[in-house]
Structure prediction request, 330 residues.
Amino acid sequence: MKKQFILFLTAMICASFISTVHAQLRVSSSGDVKIGDASPYPSGGKVQITGENSPLELRLFSATADNTRFWAINSVYGFGFGIDDSGVGHMFKNIHFPVSIMTFTNSGYFGIGKTPSYKLDVNGTIRTNALIYSSGENLKTDIKPISKETKKKILKLNCYQYTLKYAEDEENQRTRYGLIAEEVQLSYPELVYSDENGTLAIDYIGLIPLLIDEIKYQRQAIEDLKYSYKQNSNTESVKSFYQQSDIVLKQNTPNPFNEKTSIQIHNLDFDNSAQINIYNMFGKEILVISLTKEQKEVILNANTFQPGMYLYSLIVDGEIIDTKNMVISE
Prediction:
């Protein structure tokens, strides 16, 4: 009798367990699986997990700090999400030889093609239709004009062309143009960043205000020089003979140039001296070329100057005949 009671009790417990399991885990005749009772069988999916009025989670748990990965695979491709033994999350490709293509850290940093050192860290080219920076006055403090000493440093920067090391695709193997971070750091350390590996990066956007100020300064210098020359050309001493003569200072060709350029002078005639003076955009005289009466052309080599904009004037017997500008490119 006692044995029969035990068998009866066991049967009741098993029936209750089976009933509970049946309510929470269902497999349809087509093989679809449903876990939970909050909705009907899945439509278009083989597995559906449902719940109501509480967080719904699916967890893969490793009791030790080992790699844990979840994969979605078809007959050709496989992509997985997982966590490695150092606590870094990854998006993987290639199930047989997993390669991390995206990385997530506990600090909320996200990396594409690399372990991130910033909120978004990409090893490759980013394409976008717009890039917008928050820059309202209400976001800033200690606002003041850029100092003259800070602006002058922009002239110390050198531009280079280069290709990237360790470029794996054709996109990264193309010729690029830019600055060297170590050189920028000497003039503008606040625009250079370093990650935990010592790799330096430049805030190129931060250079734009400095370039705008430099362009404005050069434009003002050009206008001032033009005004000065115009005022001089209106005086009787300058206008008397040579301004009414046939002497012509031609625009240099080619312009801009990065190798050589030619400046032609027509109908040159003088009593004492003639010369071409070259000035930088700050109005500083940097070169004087003496001319002969028979001279009709002056050749300039780009390697004599730094890249930039210059003015050149034809001066005959101390009088400015004409002034033109030229540009030396990289």
Observations:
- The first helix runs from residue 2 to 24.
- The chain has four domains: 1-52, 68-120, 146-231, 235-328.
- The longest strand covers residues 319-328.
